[in-house]
Amino acid sequence: MTEPFGARLRRSMDERGPLCVGIDPHASLLTEWGLNDDVAGLERFSRTVVEAMADRVAVLKPQSAFFERFGSRGIAVLEKTVQEARAAGALVVMDAKRGDIGSTMAGYAEAFLHKDAPLFSDALTVSPYLGYGSLSPAVALARESGTGLFVLALTSNPEGGEVQHAVRTDGRNVGATILGHLAAENEGETPLGSFGAVVGATLGDLSSYELDINGPLLAPGVGAQGATPADLPRVFGAAARNVVPNVSRGVLRQGPDVGALRAAAERFAVEIGDALAAV
Ligand SMILES: O=C(O)c1cc(=O)[nH]c(=O)n1[C@@H]1O[C@H](COP(=O)(O)O)[C@@H](O)[C@H]1O
C-alpha cells in the first residue's frame, strides 16, 4: 500500500524544510523572463522552475489556471511538469481548487488523485463551499491512493471573509467549521494526517481558531501578497510546526536564472526556518 500523503509530507518537510514554491506562469512573468506568452514559453518556464527547485524544496504547487489557459497543449505541459517534479523528488500539490456536487467531485478526484491519471499528483486543492460533505469522494480516493487534499478554510484574499467568517446558527463560523471537519478526518493519524487546510499567512492573529487539525496547513501569501516568514508564528502559534508556507511570485520574479531562483528560495527557506525555530 502507498504510504499516506501526510507521512510522506512530514518526512519531506523534516528533510528539506517546509517551503512550497508555486509554479505560477503568469503572462507577466513569462514576459519578465524574456519568454513568449505561448506554449513554448510556458514549457520553458515550468521546466526551469522544476530544474531549480524539485531536488530541494519539499513541495511544488503548479497553478492549473495558467496551464489551462493554453488548452490541451497547456495541459500537456502541466502533465510533464507534474511528472518531472515528482521524479526529481518534490511532492506536487496540484492547485486546481476543484469543488462540485459529490457525483461530479468523484470525476475531479479521478482526474488528479487516481494513480493512473495523467495528472496524478500528491495532493489537490479543493473548495468546500458546496458543503464539506460534497468532498467525500475525493477524501475516499485520497485515502485509497495515498494522496491528500488541501481544503480552502481561511483563504489569503481579503474577499474570503464574507463567506468564511459568516457565523452559523450554532455560533461557529464557516472557516472554523471546515477546520473541525479536517480535524475529524485526521484523527489518530501519525505522524500527520493527509487532509490539510489552506489558511492564508496574510490573516493576522488566528488564535481564536483551532488550527491544530493534525494535518498540514498550506499558507499562501508570503512574498507578493505581503506576509513575511516572521509573521508565521504570530499567525499560526503552535500549529506553525505543520505549516507549509507557499511562495510563488516572491521567488519566480528572480528568474529565469536557475541560480537566482535557488538563491531566492533559499533566502525564504532560511527566514522561515529561523521564524519557526522558536515554535
Ligand atoms: O490554494 C492556494 O494555493 C491559494 C489559496 C489562497 O488562499 N491564496 C492563494 O494565494 N493561493 C494560491 O497561492 C499562490 C500565491 O501566489 P503568490 O501571491 O504569487 O505568492 C497562487 O497560486 C494562489 O492561487
From TrEMBL:
Region forming the signal peptide: none
Keywords: Decarboxylase, Lyase, Pyrimidine biosynthesis
Keyword Lyase: yes
Reaction equation(s) it catalyzes: orotidine 5'-phosphate + H(+) = UMP + CO2
Domain Orotidine 5'-phosphate decarboxylase: 18-264
Enzyme class: lyase
Pfam family, one: OMPdecase
CDD domains: OMP_decarboxylase_like (cd04725)
Biological pathway: Pyrimidine metabolism; UMP biosynthesis via de novo pathway; UMP from orotate: step 2/2
Molecular function terms from GO: orotidine-5'-phosphate decarboxylase activity
Catalytic residues (positions): K97
Keyword Cell inner membrane listed: no
Alphabetized InterPro entries for the sequence: Aldolase_TIM (IPR013785), OMPdecase_AS (IPR018089), OMPdecase_type-2 (IPR011995), OMPdeCOase_dom (IPR001754), RibuloseP-bd_barrel (IPR011060)
Enzyme Commission number(s) of this protein: 4.1.1.23
Assigned protein family: Belongs to the OMP decarboxylase family. Type 2 subfamily.
Name recorded for this polypeptide: Orotidine 5'-phosphate decarboxylase
Organism: Streptomyces cylindrosporus
Gene: pyrF
